[in-house]
Amino acid sequence: MKPRILPLAFILIVTLTAPILAHHSVSAEFDSTKPVTLTGTVTNVDWMNPHTYVFVDVKDTGYTRTWACELASPNELARRGVTRESLKVGMFVRVVGMRAKDGSFKVHTERITTDTSVLSPR
Q: Residue 6 to residues 14, 15, 29: CA-CA distances in angstroms?
């Protein structure tokens, strides 16, 4: 009986710890010394695991750039009162967060302000 228990215990431990090891550190991808404040229009919202993304078109001098704003998971957002009704395509928003270390147009979102509310997705 003992020879069967050891492989099963190993499989159980690996299965339960894999999600913990798979999650990345915020500081690995985003730079806390590069705060970003964006204002623009929501063009898409992807409610998916492990992170929800809000895509915002930001107008700059002569052109429009789309920023990917990373939020928490849909479940975490729901626990914080953020629903699919909170963020919709066409809304004008102000996003505060940290820019990606690689210089891409991606933000770790700390706060989103809409016309009617302030959302804290973290």
A: 12, 14, 37
